[in-house]
Amino acid sequence: MSAKKWLKELRAQGYRLTDARRAVVETVAQSPRALTPSEVYDLARERYPTLGLVTVYRTLEKLEELHLAQRVHQDDGCNAYLAHAEGHQHLLICEKCKKAVYFEGDDLDDFFTEVGKKHNFAVKDHWLQLFGTCEDCKYG
Amino acid sequence: MSAKKWLKELRAQGYRLTDARRAVVETVAQSPRALTPSEVYDLARERYPTLGLVTVYRTLEKLEELHLAQRVHQDDGCNAYLAHAEGHQHLLICEKCKKAVYFEGDDLDDFFTEVGKKHNFAVKDHWLQLFGTCEDCKYG
DNA sequence: CGTGATGTTGAAAATCATTTTCGATTATAG
DNA sequence: CTATAATCGAAAATGATTTTCAACATCACG
Ligand SMILES: [Mn+2]
Ligand SMILES: [Mn+2]
Ligand SMILES: [Zn+2]
Ligand SMILES: [Zn+2]
To answer: Which of residues B45, B68, B83 is at a domain's end?
Structure first.
C-alpha cells in the first residue's frame, strides 16, 4: 500500500493531485503483477469511470520518471508496469498468473566482471529475472 | 557465417529459397548486433533492392520460430533480432555500439532454486544479460 | 528441360498501440 | 473566493505491425 507515498512524491514534484491520477496510482501501486496501460485503464475505471486512456499513459510515464514504477520485460511483451523495488533487486515472475516478487542478495558482480574481462567488456549493469510457477499456480 | 546453415534449415522445413529470403537471412546471420525489422530492411535492400518490409517481418518471424534468431530485449526497445546461440548462453551487450556477444559458464541454478524456495516458487527459467562498454567503445 | 500446383512476393489497406492537439475543466496558491 | 496554470478526455495524427490480394517464382514431378 504505497499509493499514499507515490501521491506525496508526485505532489512534491509539483504535480497536482487529481482523481484521475489517484485512480491510476492506486491501481498500479497495489497490483501484485505488472499491468499494461490497457489493463490499468480497465482496472482504474472501476474506481474512476470517466478516466481516459491518455491519462493512463501520461501518469505511467511520470511514475516511471520518478522511479516509482518500472517497465517489466517478459516474453509476451515489454510494456507492463510494476511498482519499483527499493534499491538493487531482481524479479521472480510466475509464468501462469504473472505475480511478480522482488528478491535481493545476489552477489554476482565478480562473476560478471570476469565474464566481461574475457570479452574485453567493461560490465556496468545487468539484468536478471527468474521465471517459474508460484505456490497458487503449482497445480493446474 | 551461418547463413548457409539457416537457408538449409529453412529448406528442410519446407520453405522455398527466394532472393528476398536470402537477403534477410544473410543480413541477420552476419550482423554483430541485434537489428530491428527496419534496420534489416535497410541493410538487406543493399543486397536485394526490391525487397519489401513485409517480407522482412515474415522472414524474421520464421527465423524466430526455428530458433535461428531471437528477439533481444534492451532498454531502448525489444524488437531487435540477433542470431541465436547454441545451447544455453547469455548476452553481453555494448551500450554504445550495441555489439552483442554470447557467454556461457554461468552455474547459478542452485542459487536460483534457493531464491525460488524462499518465495515458494518453482523456478524454471531465467534471463541474464550484461551491459557495458566494448573494447572499441572504451573511449569516446 | 518444361510446366503446373502452390508457396511467396510487395503494394496497399487495415489494425493496433501510442502520441499529439486542443478546447473545456479543475486544483491550488494567494 | 479567484485567477492562473496544470490537467483532463475526445478526437486526430502517427508509427509499427499485420492482413489482404493479385501477380509472380520456386521446385517436384514428368
Ligand atoms: Mn544484481
Ligand atoms: Mn544461465
Ligand atoms: Zn502464479
Ligand atoms: Zn561497443
So the answer is: B83
Inter-residue contact B98 to B91 (CB < 8 Å): no
What's the structural domain count of chain B?
A: 2
The range of the structural domain enclosing residue A57 comes to: 3-83
Q: How far is the CA of A69 from the C1' of D12 (A)?
A: 30
pLDDT in tens, A45-81: 999 999 999 999 999 999 999 999 999 999 999 999 9
Do residues B75 and B94 both lie within one domain?
A: no
Chain B window 39-78, residues with Cβ within 7 A of nucleic strand D: 53-54, 57-58, 61
Same domain, A111 and A50: no
pTM of the model: 0.94
pLDDT classification of A1: cutoffs 50, 70, 90: low
Long-range pairs, A78-84, Cβ under 8 A, ≥24: A78/B73, A78/B78, A79/A36, A79/A37, A80/A33, A80/A34, A80/A35, A80/A36, A80/A39, A81/A28, A81/A34, A81/A35, A81/A36, A81/A37, A81/A40, A82/A28, A82/A31, A82/A33, A82/A34, A82/A35, A83/A2, A83/A28, A83/A29, A83/A31
- How far does B37 lie from chain A, in Å, by closest CA? 17
Beta-carbon contacts below 8 Å between A and B? 103
